[in-house]
# Entry
Amino acid sequence: MLWYPYTQMKIMEEPIEILDAKGVWLYTKEGKLIDSISSWWSVIHGYSHPKLNEAILSQVPHFSHIMLGGLTHKPVQELSEKLASWLPGSLNHCFFSDSGSVAVEVALKMALQYYINQDDTQRTMVLALEHAYHGDTFKTMEIGDDPDYHFVLNAYGKSPHVVHIPTTIDALEQAFAKYHQKLNCMIVEPLLQGAGGMRMYDISFLERARELCDQYGVLLIFDEVATGFGRTGHRFVADVVEPDILVLGKALTGGYLGHAVTVANDKVFSAFYDDNPDHALMHGPTFMGNALACRVALASISLFEEEHTMEKIHRIEEITRLEMAGFTDPRIREIRIMGACVCIEVYDPAVLKGYAAFARERGVFSRPFLSYLYAMVPYIISEAELVQVLGTMKAWFRQN
# Structure
């Protein structure tokens, strides 16, 4: 029996079987659906893109995977070089893994060992955000702050190694004043907190965080697994405020294969680059630098550049704001829009019960959660398709 994610298997609804997928469309036995959430925010160029297909097929005859322990290959070298040249500042050193959660684990391990390699064993704490979600592995759950996902950790009690704060500058300054001597890093989902409720906050918070991290010698980590590759309306939030460590995943491969990367700047890397073997980063996911994933990631980045993807994202935001302008309902707490993300938060989660089926009847696949009805569409979506998604969201409130 297949064990599905985030659901009680005994009472779950029958999942929708997908027979084919192309562009923004998922094809079922009954018809077709617009994927309004891009397979958990990853399929930015749509399904079955010919250039991405070809990238994988061109690599298969040579080899699909080569371990990086004592070996290397062109696809992983070329992707590392591309990312180093493409990312801001001195974010030059790429450590690959096979999922966003593992890539965040690597970032946290880097931050801790950065100080241990300098004989500083006092900096064992992490500053994180309230409502944070960074994955479902154990350390990422510890720095997360969402009981709906991470309640299992209640068995251990409150962690003494993590401090959670709201996204206010006062709270930020107070946390640094109190804990700076013990902090090894601050980690954030920059500007947009995804699974924590599509919460959005101002860039000034990150600018002040950068200043305080510099002042107190604390590393700043951006988890852009969900926000990277344009989702916030910035190519990367790291283009605006530069972190010490950047984590990318999901859209890295255009949603084709599970792959992620933890990118460190020169300062962080230099703490590991040493004659002392004990200063090495002792980490190595089996499928890190997978050749197929690297080839399709390179092709996805090329498409991002060649097809002027940021212009598409800005157009998605413009249409979304126009379509949602003036739309209100007493059951709605707030409508939030940023880049290629829109979220309708309701007061009572019961208001959204039945929406997924309602949307399917209107040709849209949606997966609201808790109090949040949202869309994160593929960037290739047409205006008519986007209006169909947004119109379905509004129709739910008008007809119920």
About this structure: The mean pLDDT is 97. Residues 100-116 form the longest helix (17 residues). The CA atoms of residues 3 and 45 lie 28 Å apart. The two ends are 36 Å apart (CA to CA).
